[in-house]
Amino acid sequence: MYYGHPFHTRGYNPHTDLKYETLNAVKPFVEYGLKEAKYTSYSHALTEVAAIAYLLGKGYDPHTAYHTVESWEKNETFY
Fold it and tell me: What is the pTM of this model?
């Protein structure tokens, strides 16, 4: 079946697939941030998760991104 674009095949929707790929990729970090916020603050947790997401976007693997951001902390603060 042809959907009007040469890359469309039955069952493939680039917008839906991108949505689920993105949400599945960030879910572990969102869950981590929610747990982190219980011990620090929402501001700290959001900053940490955003920094990890930024590094992921720069091409870092999740393990390295997480440990890099953790290495920037001193006494649960970045400053």
Answer: 0.73
